[in-house]
Amino acid sequence: QPDISSILAQLGIAGYNPSYSTGSKWSHAANGEHIHSMSPVDGEKISSVFAASLEEYDHVISTAQEAYKYWNKVPAPKRGEIVRQFGDALRKQKHALGTLVSYEMGKSLQEGLGEVQEMIDICDFAVGLSRQLYGLTMHSERPNHRMYEQWHPLGVVGIISAFNFPVAVWSWNAALAWVCGNVCVWKPSEKTPITAIACQRIAEDVFAANDIPEGVSNLIIGDAEIGKLLSADTRVPLVSATGSTRMGKAVAMQVANRLGKSILELGGNNAIIISKDADLEMSLIGAVFGAVGTAGQRCTSTRRLIIHESVYETFKAKLVKAYGQLRIGNPLDQNNHVGPLIDKDAVNAYLASIEKCKAEGGRFVVEGGVLAGDEYNSGCYVKPCIAEVENHYEIVQHETFAPILYLIKYNDLEEAIALQNGVPQGLSSAIMTLNLREAEQFLSAQGSDCGIANVNIGTSGAEIGGAFGGEKETGGGRESGSDAWKAYMRRQTNTINYSNTLPLAQGIKFDL
Ligand code: UN1
């Protein structure tokens, strides 16, 4: 077991039990409700924090608004320089933070470190971006006129993140939002507040070292109530939310009600099509990692395999064999493949899904179950399982955040694509094939309807350079790379007349 108290000390958060932070000041609420962070690894309490009160929430937002007045005047490349320093600070703390992510969330140490690497990568991306917030120039139809567009920051950006990527998803939003000139208010999952505190500490030291006033990076602890406040608050022009479709719909409706902007990154129900022309060894690694990695708790986790009937039995046998070799246990032990689920509620949801699947006619070829014994004391360790199902089962249409993999048989590619698209969610998708025609058909407009479509790669493990997000019930938002930054800014079209007359557009005459 890692020495968690020395890790908390190294991260500078030993004895921190806040309800919020605006940067330099950490509030230790006297009367807020306690939130205990329990590790799913061993069931031990890591530390406690407090839910922020309404007054504290208001204080955070007004501090952020004040900071915005300063921050939007800092030139973008200078903002990028500060984000560069933040990335460097993360490099120094990569091991400590990655270990804490693994211990608080339960993902493998490799994945915890990988998550911090994603944070570093997005900082590098944002630094470059800080000199590339480009607008277009257009030719005006009027003589001696110039037309162009520029991008301005929005103001206070609310970030609601989920437990499964407790630090990386915040950084995708925050690093871009900062270089764009916004200030951020982060509400992390109440299941993983300690890693959030660690990130905020790292960020605030960097801002302070650059004499930036408090309020550019803000953290607020709480449950769905804080999410509701952010969603309804006209002082928060953009809310970026990651989590369940149910949560996202609530956020979307609140934000839309005031015509605010939102970026939604919600549930996935990701499938890999395994074609008759697939490299089955490669497919096996992609499928198993996608299904059991992070104990099936990624939005991009592989939930369904749509397998060609000619390779179905062979591939099923390979899967069953591979699942037999999986080592489940402490995620900090690098010999293990699969760690725990986040908490006992998640275990119950997993068990309920298995029951529902059986009731609908699903046949389990690898049985699930909760593990018992010393090593599994937290009660959160479950067996990854596999069921043969029909795509239309209600449970198959639903995202269960657990390592339950569904197998579906197909015989022609159009049918496979229809099955892959035949769910309410639209995040990630993949085809395993060495056949160019199949690959291109899958990527065409008649192919996958998801935000992410891969060939000969699984559904999870996206790089930060691409835009990340999906369609339909996944929410439609895009975060991270490509031009996702535009969602954090407002576009302004500017037309300038340098003639000595006032010609009107469309040739309209208006003489006085
Ligand atoms: C998520 O599960 O919310 O593609 C994000 C991946 C990661 C991000 C997942 N880079 O699996």
TrEMBL record:
Which keywords does the record carry? NAD, Oxidoreductase
Xref: SUPFAM superfamilies: ALDH-like (SSF53720)
**EC assignment:** 1.2.1.3
Where would I find the Aldehyde dehydrogenase domain in this sequence? 28-493
**Could you name the active-site residues?**
E265
Q: Give this protein's Gene Ontology molecular function annotations.
A: aldehyde dehydrogenase (NAD+) activity
What family is reported? Belongs to the aldehyde dehydrogenase family.
Q: Partners and quaternary state?
A: Homotetramer.
Q: What is this protein called?
A: aldehyde dehydrogenase (NAD(+))
